[in-house]
Amino acid sequence: MKSRLLLVGLGLLACVAFIPASRADDAKAAAANVPNADLIPPDAGEAGPASAPTGKEWPKPSQAQFDEGKRVFQNRCARCHGWNMVNLGSIAFDLRQFPHDDATRFFHDVRYGKKAMPAWKGILSEEDIADVWSYVRMGGKM
Predict the structure, then answer these.
(1) What pTM does this model have?
(2) Which domains, from first to last, does the chain contain?
């Protein structure tokens, strides 16, 4: 009986040892692999940020980040916003006109949606959104 309890206790201890300390730790670990993760605007919730700092401090994206942003855009966004951001008259915002220095607004609108646009939080990762931002803020041209 004692050996059975000992085995159960060791099994529980082993399980607990593999549980991450917190989701914040997971987010930090994931963010470590995201280019410019320190520039991604914090999630201010559905109400939106109190102030919108500009995205001017974003460096030019790498070719790989731009290409990944274009890929995600074409797979997820082009249906409404148009291939290569050329909007052919749908109700979607013409992203060629989006301010290329307003990362906070972009991240908020993608996370929570706006008007007819659905929310992408939980569908697109922060890295995906950052990649699409790299594509959009460069006007689709590298």
Answers:
(1) 0.69
(2) 33-137 (1.10.760.10)
